[in-house]
Model the fold of this input.
Amino acid sequence: MNNFPENFTWGSATSSYQIEGAADEAGKGPSIWDAFCTVPGRVAKGDRGDIACDHYHRMREDVALMKAMGLKAYRFSIAWPRIMPSGKDQVNAEGLKFYDDLINELLDQGIEPWVTLYHWDLPLALQMEEDGWLNGEIANYFESYARVCFARFGDRVKHWITLNEPWVVAILGYGMGTFAPGRNSKSEPYVVGHNLLRAHAQAVRCYREEFQAHQKGLIGITLNCDWREPLTDKKEDVAAAQRALEFFLAWFADPIYLGQYPISMVDRLGDRLPQFTEEEKDLLMGSSDFFGLNHYTTLFAADARGNLEVGSVYGNGGLSEDQDVNLSADPNWKKTAMGWAVVPWGCQKLLAWISDRYDAPDIYITENGCAYADVPTEGKVQDDERIAYYEGYLNACHEAIEKGAQLKGYFAWSLLDNFEWASGYDKRFGLHYVDFDTLERIPKASADWYKKAIEANGIKDK
Ligand code: PNW
Done:
């Protein structure tokens, strides 16, 4: 048995647009994802989030599923346009009430709420009128929205996450254009990344100055990163893997933990990388009480020496030219339905890399999981591949802890099958199967497996 530390936070995660539905109900304003889904060809099968899992109307039933698994914590996001339909000024009382009810229900069932303030559903008005994350003013709008949430929910919410995966917002939203708002640019991602960091820092300052002393919660950020393993032990490839991790994770983590962008980015991006003022640097430095990490997969990295292979593996397109890194997978690696390789040791190496570079911060894995083409038979879903994935990655987490990583918790992505962004409903990440016609939920075998892991506070050795 591989046992986890006492008080390890066992959780599961979701996000507002992916599960709530009720997209145009109870005073909610449209988000950039509501709009993006209406553009032909952007989302598989023309799927949209208007109904999704209908969690907005089935919230209590879903909390009961969490309770049945014995979850200690549940990470969800607040939809900014449900709280502020046009992104600023006016606050929607019905939106506040929904999250009040959810938080109260969780606490009644003994489940700790972990709240993400931004999981990509930007109020559409801020995109149309203000250019969204391209406009430096957005940091002020985000701070105002965050303040409303701290003031209203902070008596009960003790873990806040400002932003989910700024890398995805910047690269997929503004570089590759595969996610909302669908832009293709070589310079905008770095402006967007910069403004995301500024917005994070201002929200954290707001929490610390106005709320933290009496509410006594913690606030952090969630960054996503795959592991990059050098393809060979040649020093050029070792350097390429390091550079790839810097462009992926250190882009956001270095300003927060070390006070500046990585030198590799400064050197390679020139004027495309904005600069922080001294005041912004001070605000950013130390602005996360914990390191939230979303991790799914691993690829090899090799120095491209100007011969970039574009488009062969996910991640090779877009802005890879800035890094001059070629990515590849071992053909023997198993792949999930997303085409993402299952490589548990990459998770252990990434946790060690973070612990080493940032002086062993408290880390929470705020997402880890996998999609498979689950099919119910006689009302049951026997998702053995998902169980194997979780077993592999949790064993890797255990090893990382033994080697010194301060990993304090783990959130399985996801509680439910849901709207998987540009992949629509086709890609199922849930511990619970959702029939998108009837909206019935069925616990998969993995939900039962996870329940036992939580109960035992550990998993069986490989
Ligand atoms: C994360 N990539 O998204 C998100 O936080 C979740 O909302 C999402 O459902 C989950 O992972 C599974 O995809 C990502 O292409 C989306 O590198 C794409 C990438 C990474 C993370």
User: Anything to note?
Assistant: The chain has one domain: 2-459. The chain has a mean pLDDT of 97.
